Every structure is written in structure tokens, then in C-alpha cells.
Amino acid sequence: MDNLDYGIIGNCRSAALVSKTGSIDWCCLPEFDSPSVFAKLLDKDIGGSFEILVDDTYTITQRYKEHTAVLVTKFSTGDDIFEIRDFMPRYHKADGGYHAPPEIVRYIRHIKGKPKFKVHYEPKLEYAIGETKTYVKRNFVASLTHAEKFDTAFLYTSFNKNAVVEGREIDLTEDGYFLLGYNEKILAPNTEKMYLELERTKVYWLNWSNNTPTYKKYNDEIHRSAVTLKLLSYDKTGAVLAAATTSLPETIGEVRNWDYRFCWIRDASMVVKVVSDLGHKNIAKRYLQFIIDLMPDKDEKLQIMYGINKEKKLTEETLEHLSGYKGSKPVRVGNAAYEQKQNDIYGILMDVIYEQLKRFSTDVENSEEIWSITKGIVWIVENHWQEADKGIWEFRSEDRHFTFSKVLCWTAIDRAIKVANIMNKNHKIEKWKPLREEIWNDIYEKAWNEEVGAYTQSYGTKHLDASVLLMESYGCVDAKDERFRKTVKAIGKELSNDGLLYRYKNEDDFGLPSSSFTVCTFWYINSLFKIGEVAEAEAHFEKLLSYSNHLGLFSEDIDFKSKRLLGNFPQAYSHLALIECAINFSKKHSEEKILESMRE
């Protein structure tokens, strides 16, 4: 498999990746950031997987049940046909809350004829450190390891357990199921109960998706991206993950391999903003509460990222025994970037706070705490905005005066002023306005490079950077501003490679990037749209959409030459930027249709 040809299933507690041939190659239980049960994705020999195997006479196709997170893999010879309906249960409980156990259900639907398949069931608990032993018991198949620490997993099935474990051929004559659970079941499952779990989960997703507006154009792409973002949200705390995986490399054979199963304030805030636009305000409110819970002290600085259960220490380790995705080592768990200083996060957080107050001012709880946070952020920005930092791309070497960080310091003060206005704190507005102007003047004078004809990556350099395109999105400049137009054109000319954008072209800690950071191309498309180059923007957008995998999913990066997906998967950042672009084009399309009908 040369591409990331996977579908994601999940229940806002954990997730699994299912290959286009129906193999579960990545799954962590009981939660997103737990050690893996299956990690073939990171080591095809020892990682472990749960595969459904058929002979070469079968054609295999895959799709999502529309507007749901139920993944359907169909096996057909023409005469013999069956489907796997993969999902992780999630639905409302009668007493409130959600039923979302750490379980995967593989519902096997018999459609036609006498299909045959074999099962390769090989869990490798605790990231495949040491040996996992699997035993056939009376009611289930148990797998356990003592290697690193004690861990277990349980498989229930309607099929012959010995045949499953031994990989013998199974004749399919009626519907059946597999249930992989982290915990032993108190009540024995059966096919009928699993069908009910399937239907309840399907209805949950249909109801959730029904809250997403319908768009005239790119509706399917918007809806699939929205469901994907929801799958990357963690119900228990309100955290939003950057991606469901660790150590999928930005470039094959290189060392840019990071663990993304955490909540980056920047990524998650952008997710919340876009998902709020789609009408899913609960994600937004829960995420706001997640942030409020993380800031108990008025002078406590925000980290750039946290664990999904609000952990503040994310110690980075390498798993030397795993060979890595297509041999790309090291495999990392944890992420040392949590210790970095990035001044942009305050602006992003203030932007989200303002957006929520603007949208839901009558029902945002904790308004007093939010006002305390706002004042605290202004204090931090006022005292630190002139300092250098690591920037949005987390350079691990020297600190610089990154333009994006300065823009977001301006954004922090601008949004704080707007929050003060909503809360009728007029004395603060007058106090904060000079600071906003001071930061803007600093950007205007020091970030612009006359020789290059653009706002550059950092003060005093000629390097261009795609993140500077977000100046307009945050309201720091107007789309009609001549400097911004020139910056968009310069970035397109310098950083575009066959329609895909580099983040930047100057060498970083690991040399020159050889893959495109997917979100940057979406930012460029959005910027072209904003400056009125709509036809060119949409042509780029259509081309970029064609690089998604077979299910419309995107990872973090795209290889410039082969166009294969690279980096952690699926990537929240990529999908939220896709939604933003798609909504812009859809609205423009609708406006043009209205104008046409008026002319008629």
C-alpha cells in the first residue's frame, strides 16, 4: 500500500484505521493516546493487525455509509458478496450521556452466494513491546502481555473461535460479527445485539450530521471533513486531537516523525472556529471549558499543547523496536514540543473566545472566568510580544521574531478589545487600543521586505512563509491591501511546486522540506479567493481535492512528486482548511446563481 489508503472509525474516545482491503492496522485502546493494540502501520512485521483475507477472485471496494462514521468494505466475486461494517459504538444513553465503550465492532453482512474468508487476528499489546499471547477461551478469545506492563484485550465472535485464531477458511452463510473490546463483557454479545449497536451508532451519526448545513457545492467534502473532525474530538474533556496517529513521516526515510495524538491549542482552536460555523456549538463550548480548566493561575502561561486528559508533561520517548512507517524511524510517543514557547497561541485562543461570545453570548457559561482569562492574556502579550519565539512551525533551534507570531499578538489584543466591548468594559478598551496600534506598527515596519515585495517569515529576512497568508484571515490586513496582494502573489511564485505549497523554503533543523504541508495549499487557495482570483483559486482547489485518498481523507503532508499522502493521519488542520475553502466557493457559487436568476 503506497498511499495512506485508510478509513478512520471512532467514537470520540479512541479511533482505529482500517485499510482499503479491510485490515485494522492501527488502533489504541482504551483511549486515543493509549498504547497500540494494532500497529502494523508502524511495523508491518511485528506491529500486529486484524485482517479479513479473501482470494484473488474478489474485488474489494470501500465507502462510508453516507454522513456517518460507519465504514463499509465490500468483497465481491459477482456471485459471492459480503460486507464488513466497521464502527466503534457511540450513541445517546437513556439516562443522558453517551455509550462509547473502548470497542470495535466488525459486523459481517452476508449479501449473496457462499463467500469464504480467512481471518488474520494478531493483536500486539503495548506497542508490540515483548510478546502478546492469545488464548481461545469458552466465551471469547483473550490476548495478554506481561512484557512492559500487564495488558489484555478480548475478542468475541459469532464464528468458530479456533478457526479465527488459526486462520482457517470460514464459510459465510449468514450475518455475523467480531467485537474487539478492551474490557471483558458482562453480558455476552450476539449478532442481533451487534446489529442493534450498528443501527444505534448509524442513527447517532446521521443525527449529528443533520446539524451540518447543506451546501450547493462541495457538500460531500464538507460533510466528510466535519465527521472526521468530530472523530478527532475527545468527549471526556473537550480536547481536539491534531491527528489519530504517531510517527507517520513527513518524508519517507527521514526523521520528521512526531506524535500527534495531543491537543495543540492552535490546531484545536481553528477546528472549533470552523465547526462552530457548521453549527456544532457543543464542541466549541466543551473545548472552551477544556482551556478554562487548564488555566487555574492568572499568571500561568499557556503551553502550546496538552495531553487529551489535560496532562501538562508529554515526555517524548522513542520505540526503538518498531521499524517505522515504510522504514522511517524513529517511532516516537510523547512530544517534546510541549516545552516550546510560541507567542501565537494567545491570539488564537482570544480569537476563539471572541468568536464564541459573538455567536453564543447568551449561553456561554463561565463569562467571569473568560474575562479573567482575557485580562491575563493581555497582560502576558503586553509583557512578551516583543520577544522572539519558536514560531508556528516549531523550529527546534534558535528563536526568531516570526511575523505570524507578531500578527497573532496583534490578534490577541484586537480580540480582547472586542470581548471588552461585549462585556461593556469600556475603560479596558481605551487602555488596550494603543498597544494594538504599537504591535501593528511594528509589523508594518519590520515584517515587510521592500526588495522581496512581501511580508516575510521573520523580521529582517527575505524568506517567505505560507503562515503569513493568515494575516488577512485574522483581520490584521484587508484583502484589498496592496501589500497583502503582493504577498499572496510572491508566495505563489516562490513557494508553489506544481500547485502544492512549501511551508517555507529556507532550511530548518532537518534540512529543506521535500513534501507540502497540506494546510498551506488550502491557505493559499483561500488567499487567492480573497484577493479576487476566484477562478484560479477554484482550479487549485479541484486539483488539491484529487490528491485525497479514496475516502476523501487528507493527512498532514503531500509528496511533491508522487502526490502520495504523508504525515500523521487524518489531520484535523487539513480538514478544517478544506471546509473553510469549500464554504467560500459554495457561497460564491450561490451568490452567482442568485445574480443570474435576477438578470433573467
From TrEMBL:
One GO MF term attached to the UniProt entry: hydrolase activity, hydrolyzing O-glycosyl compounds
Chain ranges of the GH15-like domain: 217-582
Start and end residues of each Trehalase-like N-terminal domain = 8-133
Database matches in Gene3D superfamilies: 1.50.10.10
Q: Which GO terms describe its biological process?
A: carbohydrate metabolic process
- Name a Pfam family for this protein: TREH_N
List the InterPro entries hit by this protein, alphabetically: 6-hairpin_glycosidase_sf (IPR008928), 6hp_glycosidase-like_sf (IPR012341), GH15-like (IPR011613), Trehalase-like_N (IPR045582)
Q: What superkingdom heads the lineage?
A: Bacteria
This protein is called Glucoamylase (Glucan-1,4-alpha-glucosidase), GH15 family
Organism, by scientific name, is Pricia antarctica
